[in-house]
Amino acid sequence: MMMGKMNARFRPLLAGAAMSMLVFSAAPSFAETPADTLVLAWAIDDTITLDPGESFEISPAEFIGNSYDMLVRLDIADTTKVKGGIAESWTVSDDGLTYTFKLKPGLKFASGNPITAEDVAWSFERVVKMDKSPAFILTQFGLTGENVAEKAKAAGENTFVFTVDKAYAPSFVLNCLTATVGAVVDKKLVLEHVAPVTPTDDYKFDNDFGNGWLKTGFAGSGPFKIRDWRANELLVLERNDNYYGDKPALARIIYRHVKESATQRLMLETGDIDVARNLEPGDLDAVSKNEKLATTSAPKGTVYYISLNQKNETLAKPEVRQAFKYLVDYDAIGSTLIKGIGEIRQTYQPKGVLGSLDEAPFKLDVAKAKELLEKAGLKDGFSVTMDVRSSQPVTGIAESIQQTVGQAGIKLEIIPGDGKQTLTKYRARNHDIYIGQWGMDYWDPNSNAETFTSNPDNKDDAATKTLAWRNSWDVPELTAQTKAALLERDNAKRAEMYQKLQKESLDTSPFVMIFQQTEVAGLRGNVKNYKLGPSFDSNFLAPVTK
Amino acid sequence: MSNTQTRAEAKRESGRASARAAAIARFVVIVVTTYLGLLAVTFFIGRVIPIDPVLAIVGDRAPAHVVERTRIEMGLNLPYYQQFFLYVKGALQGDFGTSVLTTNPVMSDIRRVFPATMELASLGTIIGALFGIPLGVLAAVKRGSIVDQIVRIIGLVGYSVPIFWLGLLGLLVFYARLRWTAGPGRIDVVFEYTFTPITGFYLLDSILHRDWAAFRDIFAHIILPASLLGYFSLAYISRMTRSFMLNELQQEYIVAARAKGLSETRIIWGHALRNAAVPLVTVIALSYANLLEGSVLTETVFAWPGLGLYITNSLQNADMNAVLGGTLVIGSVFIALNLFSDLLYRVLDPRTRIR
Amino acid sequence: MSETMQTRREWLLTERPASRLQARLGRAYLTWRRFTANKLAVVGLLIILALCLVAALADVLAPHSPYIGDLANSRLLFPDANHWLGTDGQGRDILSRLIYGSRLTLQVVVLVAIIAAPIGLLVGTVAGYAGGWVDAVLMRITDIFLAFPKLVLALAFVAALGPGIGNAIIAIAITSWPPYARIARAETLTVRNSDYIAAVQLMGASPTRIVLRHIMPLCVSSLIVRVTLDMAGIILTAAGLGFLGLGAQPPLPEWGAMIAAGRLFILDQWWVAAAPGFAILIVSLGFNLLGDGLRDALDPRGGSQ
Asked: Which part of the chain is the Solute-binding protein family domain (chain A) (predicted)?
């Protein structure tokens, strides 16, 4: 071919040009990373604030999880349970409204200030009063700016009392308190940094509760201190010598912002970094085959799905919704595009959370889908658009689905865009089909049940905009069931209720669930005890040695 | 007699002064309107982009009332002309607002990322000039020969190659396979805490610190992306050098020099090239401006924390303060370099000097 | 045969052309001879012709479908007899995608040129001929667009207009016209005060007519050279947009987007990104060689820009 000839002709020239560019380059010395420092490459550009009362993204959850402490923490051994963090023990009153926490005695913040129940109460107060993105995790228990001082208060040096407005399932309340928004901040330290604010109708308080400072600052008590953060560049954690538990083996953790999987793998292979966090299937495979390197993985609470907007009359037909579920090549996607970084999952509750259902009734079945479409009067197929974020594996999956639905006569047009752009459209309910992911807000089945199967108000200006709302899926029946499950205090019964919810939505929901994310990390051979947790705030680094 | 002469001179002098004042005034008007235009266009784009700027701050999972409150806090509920007015007012006072992505004032972000871009572009231009000028001279001297053709092809390939692709291949070959250079980024983490930037130009800083280990590391990081940019500017510089040199070599003074029996080397490098230097400096300045703004893709490939990456990233998050600030900086540099080459032309080239 | 050739040549090269047509043809012939004397330029022309041919015959040439692949079984195959350039991440034949992608490349280049060049020509000639405040305003606008970082501006426009090859074309056109306006204005300024234009003015031609009929044609040849030289840049910008994920919509085989997709496999399956990269290189080189040859042929003085 013409092309081949031309290549051959120019290749030596190209090589020559490249060589001449490098005349001045000297072979650099490749230093290993320092012995007391763990260097991780990770896409950390989602970090926009380090204030636990405001932060609600993935990478900061890990930073906060390692540098702050909460009253209770997720039990890594059994993720349906919680264990004590700062709290030594707790009791729930018989009416289910009052939770009393006894704090471990003699604890100190990294600053050296003692941790008291007063700090816990103030941490709650500032979250509720600032009312930032994650605040609903606490305010859903009936807390408001006016009553928070009363409902979350210190009863003595080491006793903290939390009063909720309904007799919720205790597992629900405790699970919510493990979220990063429940982190206990150093009241005395933060108060030194509050900035005055002019109160308005929307914000009735005269100061910012230290939010401006804590965006980049640190006032915690975890095993590490946040020492430095340069947005889109790096974040540094340093050992907290005032930590009450087992002190970390490593003096310093450096996260370097690197987005590309291939780049991370190269850096790992050359020893520029110790841990690579965003490996794609191909690179993961290569790392696992390299004897100097190792890999580790853990299923995470993030699920990927495509959703069909019910405002679109065609997509609102029950047969069409079902047909789509038979038009995804789950097997091929699972064995290629998400190999190692995800597991096919067709229910919306991630594996490992209380009451999650392990059922996968769908597989690629074009004949069946065609039958369903014919029943819906769409024998000749139809045209529809899908908004797709330009990043992997989402784009790859979208292209695969484009091909498989095409076999059933559906003409799918992919509209690529940046993450924020597709999201803006999705949130305004202007999409036909959206492909994306959802990460749990907090480690409790209510988080996903509420967003996937409840929609209290389907109007455009609704106060609660769940994923069901975004797809205009009006389900009063399921909404009521979701609410009821919150108040079931028997854990086994509660789990059953969630399973029922998942089962009912399997066939009918406009959500085609595809897979659950598995977080992976590639490690240098000398890195020991590096384990990923079920949530991002439980990727603990304290035990790591090298 | 002498009296009238001086009076005429004074008149001419004052005439020249007022002409100069008019020129300066015109220049100021040009710069100011260009700036305002830049601002207006960028601002307009920022508002019609279908990305909700609130999302970058509160994230996808924030409840509806938090989203609304943040929108009001950011002033996004105001009419566009009011938002624009507020922005321009701030900009005039040197306040370009705060980047929502990095939480820093835009100006301090730019002070941090711009040196990275400048360092890369500067080294790229140096490499480009160092190789491009001799190649261009050679091609001009051996016009029509195989050497000329080869130089032409090297140059045209430089114009034709997708720089991000060459960057990827470069990383693959020189970093992954051969290990000759360091990987993406500016400096190894090992130096992150022993090395404190002074000027922001890391190579220079490491020399100031006399930290030779750091210098080696920084050099190993910058050489690959800089060589790529250098190749790109080499293509331009060698082409232009060739044509300037051809022009000079046809001039009479060259014939005269040859007749005087000067050595060919001296004629070419000493006389012809010196006279071609003036337009060449302009070309190099323009090439530098091109590299500054053309570094977006290179910075993406090499994870280089520079201005191009900063603007792109901000654009994708509708972080319009950052986009506006970054665009203004690049626009200013562009205007300044154009002005600089213009001035240089006047100062160095006797033909254009006002008599 | 050779005799007729001889006479035809003489006819073309005659010192005293009998008709305007003969003179024009004679000039064209001379240009063509200068052009073909430059071997590299001919190579460039051949590359572009080959590109057009491939684009026109894509249906015949492509061995496989460019859109349909077998994800489960034929993913990321090394080049072999069946897939000459291997397969991509969706199991599609890369050669077939390259062949169909040539259509997109041509489409982008041609449309951008058709949109941007006339805009630049119009703005430049009007500014140059009218002078005064019209000139000032038009040139300020040109400067504003020139001062923008080109790719960033294109990115912003694509983000604002929405993705898709059509919008990418518009965005690139918006960023490409200012240099043409500058060139057209400079040319206009040199001819504005010529006797020729003065003569036309005396004959009572309207300014519109003068600009359209007498000035624009004079600017065209230098503009054509510049546009040809810019075509490689247009291809690279389009590829850059595709690389940043904002060019064509999947599954369109846009070359830049193909590189971006292949980036994921650059370490182990290098051919996925290498093939479209070479395709872009060859085609832009073709345009550059052609433009370079055209410049030399149309500007016999040689040398200066």
From this structure: 81-459
